[in-house]
Amino acid sequence: MASTFFEHQDVARRSTTRLIVLFGLAVVAIVASIEVLLAATMGYLSRDPDTGAVDWTAVTDPQLVLFSVVGTLIIVGGGSLFKMAQLRAGGRVVAEQLGGRLLTPGSGDLAEQRLLNVVEEMAIASGTPTPPVYLMDQEEGINAFAAGFSPNDAVIGVTRGTATRLTRDELQGVIAHEFSHILNGDMRLNLRLMGLLHGILIIGMLGYFILRMSLYSGGSRRSKDGNSGLPIMAIGAGLAVIGFAGTFFGNLIKAAVSRQREYLADASAVQFTRQPDGIAGALRKIGGFAKGSSIQSPNAPEASHMFFGRATSGLAALFATHPPLDDRIRRIDPSWNGEFPGEVPTTDAAADFAGHAGGAGASAFAGGTGGAGATATAAGTAVADIGQPGPAHLQYAAQVLRSLPDMLVSAAREPYGARAVIFALLLDRRPEARQRQIAHLAAMADPGVFEETRRLSPLVESLDDRGRLPLLEITLPALRALNPHQRDVFDGNVAALMEMDDTIDLFEWSLRLILRRDLDAQRGRDAGARVRYHTLADVRTESILLMSALAHIGHDDGTGAARAFAQARDVLGLADAVPAAAITLSGLDQSLLRLDAAAPQVKRQVLEAAVACITADRRITAAEAEVLRAVSAAMSCPMPPVLL
Q1: Which of 205, 327, 320, 312 has its CA nearest to residue 254?
Q2: Is the separation of the CB atoms in 493 and 423 below 8 Å?
Q3: pLDDT digits (tens, 9 = 90+) for 433-460
Q4: Would you say 172 and 278 are in contact if contact means Cβ atoms under 8 Å apart?
Q5: For 392-426, how does the pLDDT look when each residue is reduced to its tens digit (9 = 90+)?
Q6: How do the domains of the chain map onto residue ranges?
Q7: CA gap 199, 84 in Å, rounded
Q8: pTM for the model
Q9: Which phi-psi region, left, alpha or beta, contains residue 226 (left: φ > 0; alpha: ψ -120 to 50)?
Q10: Catalytic residue ranges
């Protein structure tokens, strides 16, 4: 089970490779079809008017072949590249195209706040950045989707019907299903499907345009040279047919790729929540609801494979991207009697809040050891838990959110407050260093952010160590809303605050890793896209540097650091450690970038070595657990909280 997440990543990579191969074959078939169409048209135009004989030299002209090949590649490739460029900004683009509205806390709508709370809990429990949530206000069907290239640019989209007609447990099941798509690498595959199929669609659109233009311009009239306008109409009709056929087979590919991923996401949602009746109840409501899971947006067909339930009906439903509803329910609940609810009323979100608030105020850290450390068994399953969070992580996340001060959580959810929370987390407790940091913020930060930092800093100082990383994760959606200038200023201030206390401690390094990864994703520099290094030997130097850093930052004495590195060396078979004086932050940044581009199974080995290194003294502190999760996140392997 330890490698389940990494196996899923491999499957997603292989699916992408198969998709590209199938797309290439489809393009070859389209090129051949267009060549036949143009040859037939040239044959018709070159025939002798008296004898009807065809001039075969015109039909087999190499320039004609070259024109059909190059022209098709330009049209299909250009269409695909154009769509992919549109999607480059990540899931936000898809959500907006489908009519989604970005939800912000404090709207006063209990259904919206319940949805945001569920997503936040799922994010903390799974170790992913909290994704922005988009509500599709005009969609009454029960449906949802996740879109993005990586967890750092992912969004969750939810229909109004989902937000208002599901109970909290059912909503949690749907959101857990979507988080499975985020964790298992399905989102990148889904966006590539959209981009590639758009290129094929362009052929049909071009043919339809030519056909309409020839009809409007009087295509049946004779042209100046005596030739009929019918060949132009024939080319348009032929391209439309070829484009339709290409889209038909492209949709079959899309459906085949999507169906098995839906079964996997259903099963993962049950494993995550341990409440099979949650997701099964949502599926049963879809079956009994008059509007089902249908999406009315005109852009729904091209995104149909991304949704929780079948989004389209009519002809588009022939290309079923989802397994039958009955099959999905019976896999989750074999005892189901086959009956759907007769009606699906709106739920009482206020009652859900009251029921869920029973444990409000309970500490998430009761009985824990805080910064003192816990036995190494707490981290023993850390790598196995990657991409496979369970109900204990979900319960922990809910308790964390309840135990954090309301003022801090509210501030973390909006851009001004989020920056202030990060600054407050970085303020040193030593008076001298803290005074330098305060003076810098007074001069360089936005005045409103500076005042908010001063207001929030006492609350941040009172936090248990294990509440700091979840609070950081809550700020990420708000920080993504910063414009490029604000983002650069914020990044500069973060770097300055870290340098002014003359040391980078474990938490600061963790915060820096997570923030840098998220900010780079917003700048379009997310490096986790393509596997470049397939064996451990390809990243041996980077692994040595990382393990050396983990050994040194976790131990003040050379003997302890040497013992810790030896544990990692035994896992990976590494050479000698790098001296502490030779380790730099820039060097570590570059090493993590390369490790992020390693194959999934290589990442698994490196993270297992990191666990061995950190737990060499048979104990793990909250700060060490934060570092482990930050390193894992930097390698695109979202690790759930280490339950100390």
Answers
A1: 320
A2: yes
A3: 899 999 999 999 999 999 999 999 999 9
A4: yes
A5: 999 989 888 888 998 999 999 888 899 999 999 99
A6: 1-359, 374-386+529-634, 391-508
A7: 10
A8: 0.81
A9: left
A10: 178
